[in-house]
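Morning F.,

Quick status update on the modeling queue. The single chain you submitted on Monday has been processed. Sequence for confirmation:
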Amino acid sequence: MMNFPVLLKWQILRTRLYLDRLRAKNFVFPLVVFVLTTTGLLVYYNLFQYSGLWQEWNIASGNAFHFCEANRMDSLIRQPSNTWSNLGFFMVGLFTLTLGIQDLKYSQRKESDNFLVRYPIFSIMFGLSAIYVFIGSFFYHASLTSFFQKMDQAGMYSLVIMVITFNIYKIFPLIRIKGEWKSSHALLVAFAMGMNYLILTTMVKFNINILFPALVIVAFLTSVYYLLFVSREHYFTKYLWASFVILVMSAIIWILDRTNTVCSPESIFQGHALWHILNAASILFIYMYYRSGVVPVQKTVEWREERRKRRRGEL
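Structure tokens below.
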């Protein structure tokens, strides 16, 4: 039985993350989905392990064959550890998607100070992006085909674009239209959807080793911009820094694996697999960061009005 301090910390956490309305039963269905999906994939793998499913598909290029793990080209899953480790993205995606759906059912969500609760579409899109990463990366490492390689890249871009979208909303929660301040959420949802369309049609053609880090830098800079020029008080920033530290650790591990500096090809312990797990944890922390606070709408408007007046020389 949990003691009182543990229960108190859990209650504080639930309150801080706007989970007070939720009960364990709300997560039964996503848990069932996760278990059934994982079981189904395992059963299919054991039944058709040497089916040669991917033989007629176009082989992937670039980093595909440069990871440490040995490539089992005669197997249904050609990089087992790098494949199954993607289940972490699936768990995070189901979790955030569930929160978005539950927020959508909340009749008083428009009164919430937290923008994720107020506009559940953000959580739903974030959850779908994480599941997108799971599907793309799982089948990419399973098949080592160019089709799923592009899908893997598209999912990664999609997640980073959602982070950038969150940051822009926090900085500009309201936009001025014909002299009136109105919520920017609909415009930013359209922005995220438009960017995802560009990903599928154009961005996957660019070098991922250049474009993806560039997008991550934009996400990082917009996060820092918010802290420096808007507010340091309205969010639990330890979640943000935890996400950043984990992301740096995962990048170091990716490099060590990619360069075969730390490498044991036949082992189930693979650096790239750990990279997947750490990235999933980083994604969860970044979502918890956004869900941990309120958007100081009035303060943001006052700050923007002050900057506008300074530009016009009125101050």
